[in-house]
Amino acid sequence: VELTRATIVLAGAELAGAGPIEGTWVGPHSKLIFNKDGTGRADVVSLKCSTDTTWSTNGNALTFTETKSTCKGMESFLNIPHNGYYSMSADGNKLVMVMQKVPPFHATGSTAISVMAKEGTTLPAAPPPPTGFTATKSGPGQVSTSWAVVSGADAYNAFCMTDPMTGKNTVVMGVLSGTSATLTGLTAGQKYNCFVSALNAGGMQQSSIVAVRP
Question: Which of 166, 174, 164, 178 is CA-nearest to residue 197?
Answer without folding.
Answer: 174
